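G., the chain you wanted modeled:
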Amino acid sequence: MYTFSSKLKTFSFVLMLLGAIGIGVGFFNAPKNIEEAQKMIEAENHGGHGETTHENASENHEMPAVQKATKHVEEKAHETHTGTLHDTTALAAVIEKEANQPADAKVTTVAAPVEAAHEQHATSSHKTHEADAHAEHEKHLEHQFHQLQNKPWAALYVACLFIMLISLGALAFYAIQQVAQAGWSPVLFRVMQGITAYLPVGSVIFFILLVVLALTVPLHYNHLFIWMDEDVVKADKIIAAKSGYLNVPFWLIRAAIFLIGWNLYRYYSRKNCLAQDESNDNTFYKKNFKLSAAFLVFFIVTESIMSWDWIMSIDPHWFSTLFGWYVFASFFVSGITTIAMVTLYLKSKGYLEYVNTSHIHDLAKFMFGISVFWTYLWFSQFMLIWYANIPEEVTYFITRIEDYNLPFFGMVVMNFVFPILILINTDFKRLTWVLVMAGTIILLGHYVDFFNMIMPSAVGDQWFIGIPEIGSLLFFIGLFLYVVFNALTKSPLLPKRNPFIEESKHFHY
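Predicted structure as tokens:
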């Protein structure tokens, strides 16, 4: 039986405490009104950018108001010809009225009204332009205020979702082993079950977060899911057309079905596995086989819908038919990597006596293979959308390349280049320090992947990995460590009566 060490338990509590403080600081520092948001933006832009803006403002101030207005009128007249038509009509009227006057008088009389007409029209257009510019500026400030408001919510959401999906990825891997009747992996089943023990806890927290988001969007405390705002739906025909699917009650019902279904499989599969240890036949093993096969069908459907509901709908204008597979590959490899990391930790503490380097090697092969699979899906989605160059699709990548250049391309290095260079070597797959290093990079890389999927639509270019992001991640990592390692103490680490346990004990590659 595994004993939860006091040091690890204390470490998990420290992480949760630091994380909770970081989350609180994030919400406390979020702007409460547009004025606070404007001050935050001005403080952030203070420096070189501010000097440039001041210089441009000085140049505009030196230009006479009438000259600026006239220039604007001339540009608009060139585009629509309305200004030209207005002035020509005025000129014709004056010429007709003054036809019998002397030549000098005619010139003076004609020129004065035309200049007055020009000046009056320019002044009027200038005021209209100023009013439009002011309205546009206020609208832009409000948009930035909403983005800054979203920051702590989005940071909490990314960390909560990512850590929960790690346990779901481990659960899917466990189900695949059951259906495949794999002979190498039964000695790792208790590790997998320990990691999936976080799923019920993570699911409850995540569902509460979804409910809170649904309640606070109409109150304008956040705008993470803009389709929840009735004013946005009324003003946006595209979002309004999707309201039959994207509406809060149906959205929450779907979430409840997904989470309950996944947790029911997790509960009954573990129950059958423990019952098999005390059984004289393989009845419970066969039940698990059938249950796992049904779960995988349910999982692959609900996982795709989940990715649309919980990630893609943050930007309800954009869609990708490959997105469900892409999200799956990201959290699936994270789940496998976590299995490897926990196994190595337990092995270093003297547990899992039957786990050998061949088991570790196989886990590393899955880490390598699914990393390549993730890269294939990332490139397929990127290349097809970029090559087709359809505006409503390509804007997804333009935003990330322009505003998230470092994390966007950095995650490709962390999730593909690094695993390829390190894990392609067979000998490296058996070295603990190499796998710990590779696993840490992969997990951080896929957190950044989820960050890239969610943050651009939630906070735009107002992103920064700061206190709320780090605090949220620390809190859920601490909670994950506590729940997982506490669950490992509840049952023996070796399944006794699994039909393939002897094969797994003596597995060598």
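Residues 183 and 503 are 6 Å apart (CA to CA).

Shout if anything looks off.
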